[in-house]
Design brief:
Helix content is about 25%, strand content about 25%. It is α+β, with helices and mostly antiparallel strands and about 850 residues long. The chain has 6 domains: about 70 residues, 2-Layer Sandwich (Phenylalanyl-tRNA Synthetase, Chain B, domain 1), CATH 3.30.56; about 110 residues, Nucleic acid-binding proteins (OB fold (Dihydrolipoamide Acetyltransferase, E2P), Beta Barrel); about 200 residues, Phenylalanyl-tRNA Synthetase, Chain B, domain 3 (3-Layer(bba) Sandwich); about 70 residues, 2-Layer Sandwich (Phenylalanyl-tRNA Synthetase, Chain B, domain 1); about 210 residues, Bira Bifunctional Protein, Domain 2 (BirA Bifunctional Protein, domain 2, 2-Layer Sandwich), CATH 3.30.930; about 90 residues, Ferrodoxin-fold anticodon-binding domain (Alpha-Beta Plaits, 2-Layer Sandwich), CATH 3.30.70.380.
Length: about 850
């Protein structure tokens, strides 16, 4: 919010010599953030001049310049070269003399040009920072001014003002006005506040038909709770906007358009109530406020045809839609240079509805910014009266009795504030007088009750909804410096839980192995969740966000892999072709057909009851921790004497086995299937009988669709499951000094038998003497019956207390073969 100081001074006492630093400091004290300072950046001699004579001189370049003699109140006129042609002898203009500096900065000096020494410059509105007009020099008569020649032009045009800019938080919409900022400056400094809402006397117009037809309101709230109209007739369309108003609007960040439109913007900035002016002669009948029909269109003031949604709230007349309520008016009833009869609208719209419409159409406006933060419903009639007052005063119009008043707004609900509550919440002792005075100063009505007070918030403070917000206001008004800075003492505890320690160990181990940890967005599309959320084909249940940042990614993730793929695509697009990344995070796994969420939450700082806590816990889906990794590019770069080694499935499986070892969790790798992975390059990862994840290479067609290399290896594991199934205490493996006995084993099994399952049986059958077993060969061909395969394993046996004999090793191997034969029909190959 930009606040011109001359305007602010009308409603609160401010010293004449105040600086922008002092204004900012005062507003920061009551909770605003300092942003910037704005002025017209003018200095030096800038005077009122009068054109005495001029000669037009055509130039060889085709341009015609005017050699002018201009009186600036000095003994002799100034000779000035001017390329504009919109003036005549006798016109009074703004002259920048040598030594002046215009915005840019643009220093003015006497210089020779077109055969003359131009001793100054006649300025346009744009060169003075008053607007975008640059078709000619600024004629003071166009602003209704006839000043003395030689007078200072800067104060005459209101260009000696400056504005401070502060950031207004979303919950303090009342501060999007000079009225609100003046009130806050008064709270900070104790200066006398004069409410501009009391300066205008509302007059209720009658006879103009207004209907709010919102029989099926969005989220149970009527689109328009207040709708006031007034009529002004006979406005002089040729009247200019006075320079003081142009200057204030400019400092506030709004360009001057026309007198009528400028007045509506001026009142919006002054009171915080957006108003709109319709050309009364272009209206067809009365006004109906309704929701849009599907597919309905509207041409807005920016000349764009917009296709409307059923949620959009419209202003309509007999011809159809004439405006997007609270956002932007329609072109069909626009005020133009011929408009003399005006209908003034001042309404209060549902904040949520306006916010959604503005975002849906990507059409933020000064009006929508205020409505979506909450506008004082009690100010609508005052704002309409203020617009009428200015149109009569500045536009020579006549106030008409025609108009309307519709008001269904609900008065604020009183809040019970118990004695001692604020001190208990804030941790600071406030006197009863400080509490009452603070609440009264911000506009509340305070009535004493048994054991406390009943506090009714003002209509302009919809953010005051409970006693916690009242406590915050008392702390803010009395001063945050009263709150001591005390570092909290951590309560005694036992440190991290087992699960927390193991999750950290998992991250640290992958990082130590050379992978890079990343954090990806947890929001995905339905297609991504369906593809990676389950190994089976079909839709995957997912939790939808109520107010998604991106409508294309409106679901909470059921898998970490889509996020890692997005990270890989971004890095590959920037030339980083060799990647090994991982993420440890939660996924969200709802039950199919179940609705999640609760209707009510505890207010402010109130602790939830045991029943509500149980309901809250049941209102969220399961959120297990997963770990996922992605590998692409080369593990070893090509170099002299060494060919490159590409990352692939083996890297993903090795990472999974590494994690299982770190967590002391059993892990079996078997052939698997996943709809997003290559059918012949996918591993199912099991811990006992439980599937805990998958590792594999993405389908080549999917990799191509995602603009990824052909080989992309991925891994995802249920980290909670691995931790749950792992050893309760992870003990270090002792180094055994006794020698190992190694033997090979070749078994013939049906092709359907998974090598990983057979390996698990060998481990089980061999017993404790088996230290390690690995698959070294998979043969199918000559000498092997059709439908069978030959699998060769390398076994290593070792005892911790003695040197094994060959017989002991053979006995353990035979036990393993026997178990494999009984359960899988394995036959020892000769």
């Amino acid at each position: 919010m930009r606040v011109p100081i001359s305007w602010l001074r009308e409603f609160v006492d401010i010293p004449l010599d105040v600086t922008h630093e002092q204004i900012h400091a005062a507003l920061v004290k009551v909770g605003f953030e300092e942003e910037d300072v704005h002025d017209f950046d003018l200095s030096g001699p800038i005077l009122v001049g009068q054109v005495l004579e001029f000669t037009s001189e055509p130039q060889s370049n085709g341009k015609t310049i005017n050699w002018c003699q201009v009186d600036v109140g000095e003994a002799e006129p100034r000779g000035i070269v001017c390329g504009a042609h919109n003036f005549a002898v006798g016109d009074k203009v703004v002259v920048s003399l040598p030594g002046a500096v215009l915005p840019g900065p643009f220093p003015i000096a006497a210089r020779k040009t077109y055969g003359h020494v131009s001793d100054g410059m006649m300025a346009s509105a744009r060169e003075l920072g008053m607007g975008d007009e640059h078709e000619g020099i600024l004629l003071l008569k166009s602003l209704g001014l006839d000043p003395v020649v030689g007078a200072e032009a800067v104060p005459l045009l209101g260009l000696d003002d400056f504005a401070v800019e502060v950031n207004v938080t979303p919950d303090r919409g009342y501060a999007f006005s000079i009225r609100g900022i003046a009130r806050e400056y008064s709270h900070s400094t104790g200066a006398t506040f004069r409410d501009p809402a009391l300066a205008s006397s509302p007059v209720a117009g009658t006879g103009f038909s207004v209907t709010v037809d919102d029989v099926a309101p969005i989220r149970g709230r009527i689109g328009a709770s207040v709708f006031t109209t007034r009529v002004v007739r006979g406005i002089d369309a040729s009247r200019p906007t006075p320079p003081w108003m142009i200057a204030r609007l400019g400092l506030a960040g709004i360009r001057s358009i026309s007198l009528t439109v400028d007045i509506t913007n001026y009142v919006m900035l002054e009171l915080g109530q957006p108003t709109h002016a319709y050309d009364l002669d272009k209206l067809s009948g009365g006004i109906i406020v309704r929701r849009a029909a599907a597919g309905e269109t509207l041409t807005t003031l920016d000349d764009k045809v917009r296709t409307l949604a059923a949620e959009d709230l419209l202003i309509t007349d007999g011809s159809g839609a004439i405006g997007l309520a609270g956002v932007m008016g329609g072109a069909s009833t626009e005020i133009d240079t011929t408009s003399t009869n005006v209908l003034v609208e001042s309404a209060n719209f549902d904040p949520t509805s306006i916010a959604r419409t503005a975002r849906r159409h990507k059409l933020p406006s000064e009006a929508s910014r205020r409505f979506e933060r909450g506008v004082d419903p009690a100010i609508a009639q005052v704002a309409a009266a203020r617009v009428v007052e200015l149109l009569v005063e500045l536009g020579a119009g006549t106030a008409d009795e025609l108009g309307s008043v519709l008001d269904t707004s609900v008065a604020p609900t009183p809040i019970e504030l118990a004695d001692g509550y604020i001190e208990g919440l804030i941790g600071v002792q406030f006197s009863p007088d400080e509490i009452t005075t603070s609440l009264v100063d911000i506009g509340c009505a305070v009535d004493a009750t048994t054991g406390g007070h009943s506090v009714t918030p003002p209509t302009w403070r919809p953010d005051l909804t409970d006693r916690a917000t009242l406590a915050e206001e008392v702390a803010r008004i009395v001063g945050y410096d009263r709150i001591p800075s005390v570092l909290p003492v951590a309560p005694p505890g036992r440190g991290l839980t087992r699960e927390q320690r193991l999750r950290r160990s998992a991250s640290a181990s992958l990082a130590s192995a050379g992978l890079t940890e990343v954090l990806a967005y947890p929001f995905l599309s339905q297609a991504s969740n369906d593809l990676f959320g389950s190994p089976l084909t079909g839709a995957v249940p997912a939790v939808a966000l109520a107010n998604a940042i991106d409508s294309e990614a409106a679901l909470l993730r059921t898998s970490l892999l889509p996020g890692l793929i997005s990270v890989a695509r971004r890095n590959l697009s920037r030339g980083l072709t060799d990647l090994a990344v991982f993420e440890v995070g939660t996924v969200f796994l709802p039950e199919s057909g179940r609705t999640y969420g609760v209707d009510t939450l505890p207010a402010g700082n109130e602790l939830p009851s045991a029943e509500l806590l149980e309901k809250l816990r049941g209102s969220i889906p399961a959120q297990p921790w997963h770990v996922a990794a992605l590998f692409v590019g080369d593990a070893v770069a090509k170099q002299p004497g060494q060919s490159s080694i590409q990352r692939g499935l083996s890297d993903a499986i090795s990472a999974a086995q590494h994690l299982a070892a770190v967590l002391a969790s059993p892990l079996t790798v078997t052939t698997g299937a996943h709809k997003a992975m290559h059918p012949g390059r996918t591993a199912e990862l099991r811990s006992g009988d439980r599937v805990v994840g998958y590792a594999g290479e993405l389908l080549p067609s999917l990799a191509a669709e995602l603009d990824l290399p052909r080989v992309v290896a991925v891994l995802e594991l249920d980290l909670d499951a691995l931790i749950e199934l792992g050893a309760v205490e992870i003990a270090p493996t002792p180094i055994v000094s006794f020698p190992a006995a190694t033997q090979d084993l070749t078994l013939v099994v049906p092709e359907a038998v998974r090598a990983g399952e057979l390996l698990a049986l060998l481990v089980e059958g061999a017993g404790d003497l088996l230290e390690n077993v690995s698959l070294v060969d998979d043969y199918r061909g000559t000498g092997i019956a059709d439908g069978s395969k030959s699998l060769t394993f390398a076994l290593r046996f070792r005892a911790t207390d003695r040197t094994l004999t060959a017989a002991e090793a053979t006995e353990a191997k035979s036990a393993a073969v026997a178990l494999a034969a009984s359960r899988m029909g394995a036959v020892l190959r000769e």
